[in-house]
UniProtKB/TrEMBL annotation:
It comes from Paenibacillus violae. This is histidine kinase. It comes from the Bacteria. Residues 496-600 form the Histidine kinase domain. The lineage of its organism: Bacteria, Bacillati, Bacillota, Bacilli, Bacillales. InterPro entries: Bact_2-comp_sensor_kinase (IPR050640), HAMP_dom (IPR003660), HATPase_C_sf (IPR036890), HATPase_dom (IPR003594), His_kinase_dom (IPR005467), Sig_transdc_His_kin_internal (IPR010559). It catalyses: ATP + protein L-histidine = ADP + protein N-phospho-L-histidine.
Length: 607
């Protein structure tokens, strides 16, 4: 009901409010739809951008680890290229360290190749050349001895006898190239830094190709940050490097170091792009060469934060656009509505008869032109009224007055002539009665009544007919048929009497004794129909056409005015659809139909 009341009060009859409401709805829906699609596309673009940045960083990490794997392999490749150096390292790994030292001294004394005893120095140089290496370890399978090389520390020789250590079993079972440092090796080397990853490479005798040991290179995981420095400011989420068993080799979030990654099963089961759970976007890169996995985790909360910032910006801009798009047209529409209502108000003033009203609007737009045209129209209307309408009204009133002035004397002269002829011819006793009827008839004509009704006109007709019924005694009869309910209807004075007089003068047959006149009155919708029928002489067709033509022309002073007087006055007072119609048959009589307004007309005429 509230919406219906608002509609009835403000919208139903207010075109501008409906247009403004429609425009506002279209604007709001358009801007909201555009903002939604923009938010969706920009959010998706922001997500893709963040994921691309992360993937680029992941590729850099992947390439870096591949390079470190290759650098660890290149240590042994360089060893194998130098036969003397390879022979010295093989001897060191297959014999006790004391024998190696003694044999090295003997080789020097005998002037042998100096590089034969530089094996440990070779590995030491590689350790010092690469700042990312924390330890280089050489394991001897035959001697079960671990050589540990570290920065700024002398070489350590650690016995890993199977009776006292699990390292031989670890070395025998561990076949992965890149992995976490083994706990037993850590303990033996006293290396407990969690931010390390190990590259293990088997050492084979160059001559026999027999596996004689293992090379373990421990790299610092923190060195990976060097390849992330360019993206670190824009990088969101976390990047992890995982071994095939789920060991965390690198964690940019520093959350999973020192423990196995808890979602390794999901990582192994996923493709490169997938959602691991409802909280993270996951990207996966697999490095076959080093058998490690680079995983990118992008929490949805961080992406949502970026989307929220984008959404808030778009929302703010959309709100401002909606406000401007509605406010400015509203001001324009309300201004146009105000000017339009001003025009409507002034047209109503003119409708009520105030022809002095003028619209003050000096603008050059369409409404300004309408206002000026309206003012010009009123000016021309006033001039027309002064020139034509008022003159026409005066002319009509003059014609009506002239017609009425001619009706009364005409009737008076005829009536006096009748009385005179009656008195001369007979001197009958009914003269007094005729004079009485005549005086009553004159009284009805002379008396000025504000409201002249059908009853008054029919009474005047009756008095007139009474006079002639006395004159033509036993030769003339009349009847008047009408509904007494129609008595108060207003009609024009002397709208029927001249018709009766016209019959007495032109239609009555003096030689006949059955002269009859019938007056019938009834209402037909908006018309009051009066039919006057007689059985008199009638009118020939030529004469009837001539009379009908004269009814439509102005009356000359020397012509009789009976029917034409009624016809002209009815049209002047009530309009073109009112008047009289004639039908006649020679020798059988005439019928006159008079059409009057059933509501008495729009104006009060007393003529």
């Amino acid at each position: 009901m509230g919406f219906v009341n608002v509609y009835l009060a403000y919208l139903r009859n207010n075109l501008f409010m409906r247009l403004l409401l429609l425009f506002s709805l279209i604007t709001i829906i358009t801007i909201i739809s555009f903002s939604f699609f923009m938010y969706h596309s920009m959010s998706q673009a922001a997500i893709n951008r963040e994921l691309d940045i992360q993937k680029k960083a992941m590729m850099n990490v992947n390439d870096y680890l591949g390079q470190k794997y290759d650098s660890a392999q290149s240590i042994l490749f360089g060893l194998y290229r130098d036969s003397s150096l390879a022979a010295g390292v093989s001897f060191m790994l297959q014999h006790p360290f004391q024998e190696y030292v003694q044999h090295s001294l003997e080789q020097n004394n005998l002037g042998g190749n100096s590089t034969w005893n530089d094996g440990l120095e070779y590995f030491k140089n590689h350790l010092e050349d690469d700042e990312d290496i924390r330890n280089v370890m050489l394991y001897s399978v035959d001697q079960q001895v671990l050589y540990v090389l570290s920065h700024n520390r002398p070489m350590r020789l650690i016995s890993t006898n199977a009776a006292h250590s699990y390292i031989p079993e670890v070395m025998a079972l561990d076949s992965k190239s890149v992995s976490l440092p083994n706990i037993w090796v850590r303990e033996a080397a006293d290396q407990w830094d969690n931010h390390l990853y190990a590259v293990r490479t088997p050492i084979n005798d160059k001559q026999t190709l027999k596996n004689i040991g293992q090379q373990l290179v421990y790299f610092s995981s923190d060195s990976i940050w060097k390849v992330l420095s360019d993206e670190q400011q824009d990088l969101k989420g976390a990047i992890l490097v995982l071994s095939s068993e789920g060991g965390v080799l690198f964690d940019s979030s520093d959350q999973y170091y020192g423990k196995p990654y808890p979602y390794m099963d999901q990582v192994n089961a996923m493709y490169e792009h997938s959602e691991m759970n409802n909280n993270n976007y996951v990207t996966k890169l697999t490095q076959n060469k080093g058998d490690f996995i680079v995983v990118g985790l992008m929490p949805k909360e961080e992406l949502s934060a970026s989307s929220w910032r984008i959404g808030s910006t778009i929302f703010s801009i959309s709100a401002v656009c909606i406000a401007i798009a509605i406010l400015l047209p509203s001001l324009v529409v309300l201004n146009v509505a105000k000017r339009t209502n001003l025009i409507i108000r002034f047209t109503r003033k003119v409708k009520q008869g105030d022809l002095t009203a003028r619209i003050q609007d000096a603008r050059e737009d369409e409404l300004g032109q309408i206002s000026r045209s309206f003012n010009e129209m009123i000016d021309e209307l006033n001039q027309y009224i002064d020139r034509v309408y008022k003159a026409d009204i005066k002319q009509k009133h003059t014609e009506l007055t002239a017609l009425q002035a001619r009706v009364n004397p005409h009737f008076l002269y005829n009536t006096l002539e009748v009385i005179r002829m009656r008195a001369i011819s007979q001197g009958a006793h009914d003269v007094g009665e005729m004079i009485y009827s005549l005086s009553a008839l004159f009284r009805s004509f002379v008396q000025q009544k504000k409201v002249y009704t059908l009853k008054d006109e029919l009474e005047a007709c009756r008095l007139y007919l009474e006079l002639f019924q006395i004159r033509y005694k036993d030769k003339f009869t009349y009847t008047i048929e009408w509904d007494r309910k129609l008595a108060p209807l207003r009609i024009m004075k002397m709208s029927l009497q001249p018709i009766i007089e016209n019959y007495i003068v032109h239609g009555l047959r003096n030689e006949s004794t059955d002269n009859q006149l019938h007056i019938r009155v009834h209402q037909m919708e908006e018309f009051l129909h009066v039919q006057v029928t007689d059985n008199g002489n009638g009118i020939t067709s030529e004469r009837l056409k001539e009379i009908e033509q004269r009814l439509q022309t102005e009356e000359s002073e020397d012509e009789s005015f009976g029917l034409r007087s009624i016809h002209q006055r009815l049209k002047l007072l009530y309009g073109s659809k009112y008047g009289i119609e004639l039908r006649s048959t020679p020798g059988h009589g005439t019928t006159v139909d008079v059409w009057l307004p059933a509501d008495g007309g729009k104006e009060d005429y007393d003529v």
